[in-house]
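user: Kindly work through both lines:
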Amino acid sequence: DTVHLFPNGHTGLAVPGSTINPRFPIPEMPTDIQIMQLRSLGLDPEDFQGRVVEVRRAIQLQKRAIGRSRGMDYSAFNDDQLSDVWQYNIFPNSILSFTPEHCWLLRPRPHPTDASKCLFDKISLEMYADPKLAESAEEIRGPGHRQTRKTSAYLPDDYQRPKRDIFHYDAVIKGEKTMTDTIDQDVELLSGVQRGMQSSGFNQVYLNEDEMRVQHFHNRMNELIN
């Protein structure tokens, strides 16, 4: 991952997408998310048997090759931006996480009475194809589209915004609601983290180099409070 630290507590992060974690055994076949992306681009996942590490580059090249014909103009993006997930944390409590095909706006807000809880807003924005460019109605799907509500590559004439959905943390834990796989996994860890921080044996946080964005945030917060 590539980390950026900006003045005034803001941070950025680029996470390689359309790939696998090299710290774990490399699978023989592409993952479910890779298969979804490959098929949406007209590529056969079977062609990448034993070549999973090549999927990311193949997706970059294929998006570049067929993007305009699918109504998606990628000319302003570099190759890494075509496959990776980019995130910017805007101090103090706004997060933009995006690919060329989608954007999440995440915003944790303080709970009015309980400092150990928060209200968490998630707004999902999705890019529809430009019918003036498109020669095909097939949709290009990015990593943020696994739980998409889109029913067409084009914005329907009768489109209506989805109704706002409000639910409790427990609904995600029980599998009744989802905020996408990535966020659901983070949510599952929260209660354990809080229990650890409330333990009588906990008196200090030790952050490794992967958590420099957390340290950068708290450095700025301490500057403002002090």
About this structure: The chain has a mean pLDDT of 91. The first helix runs from residue 32 to 40. The first strand starts at residue 2 and ends at 5.
